[in-house]
Amino acid sequence: MTIDGATDLHPLAVVERPSFESAADPVTVVDLFAGCGGLTLGVAQAADHVGRGVDVRLAVEFDQVAADVYLANFPDARDVKVEDITTLFSSELDEPLTKTEKLLREKVGGLDVLVGGPPCQGHSNLNNHTRRDDPKNALYAIMARAARVLSPDVIVIENVPAVLNDKYKAMNAVSVVRERLAALGYEVSDRVVSLHELGVPQKRKRHVLLATRNDKKALEIFDSLPLETTGGVDLEWAIGDLVEQASNGPFDRAPTPSAENTKRMRYLLAEDEYDLPNHLRPKCHQGKHSYKSMYGRLRWKEPAQTITSGFGSIGQGRYMHPELPRALTPHEAARIQGFPDYFAFDKATTRSALATMIGNAVPPQLARQLLLGVLTSITND
Fold first, then answer.
1. Are 94 and 169 in contact (CB under 8 A)?
2. Which of 168, 217, 334, 373 is the most exposed place for a label (fewest CB within 10 A)?
3. CA distance 90 to 249
4. Bridge partners, residue 304, by sequence
5. Claim to verify: residue 239 and residue 98 sit in the same structural domain
6. Is 36 assigned a catalytic role?
7. Beta partners for residue 158, in sequence order
């Protein structure tokens, strides 16, 4: 399997960025909650695959460093805003458009694709006390408002599967968005997708909503995912060539483990084990627990566990390298998230910034595979 001109041996090791912006008939894009640009990159890869360019009309991201990384990778983006999304779009879905929204619609112009990955901390099952009424949950519904304002041809919204249980004003948030989009004339489908089946080398599942204007064929393609075989897309496929990567700067520098964690990792290597026995765990984990993956070692021939911002600590999950006594580097985590080496993270200069940005990123293969179906459908019509 190859991805956008990559070699068969190391598909993510491509260092030369495609000229996404120079091709004819560009796909116009708006990316809300943009992060470092995973969804935009996926749209650009899909457009490139069918011989089209990409024209980023607007990207909105609250975090300055993530916005800096986004702009570094999409320098021709017309507008990258660093601000709260609620200053641009009203959270009242049925109210008349505000002056700000009307000006924004005029500035963006005709729009092909709207993508967004609203913050998911409020939805996560890790947040047991607040996940169902967290104010962040309302941000999911703002995607429907943005669709009303910008009137795109295609909409992609990604989130964690637990979003299916969340409420917006006492109503199911996903159902609210589906209803609003249907009222606007969209064909809508949503489902939980295994990203490993889309070519992402990790055990991550995401909820995806796809809406198109009268393009049932594209929705049929979406409902029948995966679109291509992903045989061989495992951890070795993703990072096997980085075992001897020089530690030049924070992107390729492994975190320094504690003496106790070094002892744990050396035990796993010496015994050729992947799960740490209870007697070597912290005392709070030595009884009955469900934390089997914590302090665990990754396997070359399997996908990694879901990458989070804790990938640099073996105490945060199964993040120990398969053959080295260390946790993952940011470079390795970015690869596991599906980012090719031409995607530059240089603007993030600290380990903390890299961990947060990479852990929160949306793997570009998600948008790439979804939009391949849509763009192929449009091209073949």
1. no
2. 217
3. 42
4. 202
5. no
6. no
7. 208
pTM for the predicted model, two decimal places: 0.91
Q: What is the SS3 assignment for 202-218? A: EECEEEEEEEECCCHHH
Q: What is the mean pLDDT of residues 176-189?
A: 95
Task: Give yes or no: residues 207 and 278 share one domain.
Answer: no
User: Which residue from 233, 256, 309, 245 is spatially nearest to 36, judged by alpha carbons?
Assistant: 309
Q: Mean pLDDT throughout 36-45?
A: 98
Task: Tell me which residue of 363, 361, 344, 360 sits closest to 249, measured CA to CA.
Answer: 344
Would you give the DSSP letter of residue 15?
-
Kindly indicate the confidence band of residue 10, based on its pLDDT and cuts at 50, 70 and 90. Answer: low
Choice among 120, 149, 307, 348 that is catalytic = 120
Six token digits for residue 159? 């989130």
CA–CA dist 180, 89 (Å, integer)? 15
Residue carrying structure tokens 């849509």: 374
pLDDT over threshold 60, residue 134: no
Whole-angstrom distance, CA of residue 280 vs CA of residue 359 = 27
| Mean pLDDT, rounded, for 247-268 | 95
Q: Domain containing 144: what range?
A: 27-233+362-380
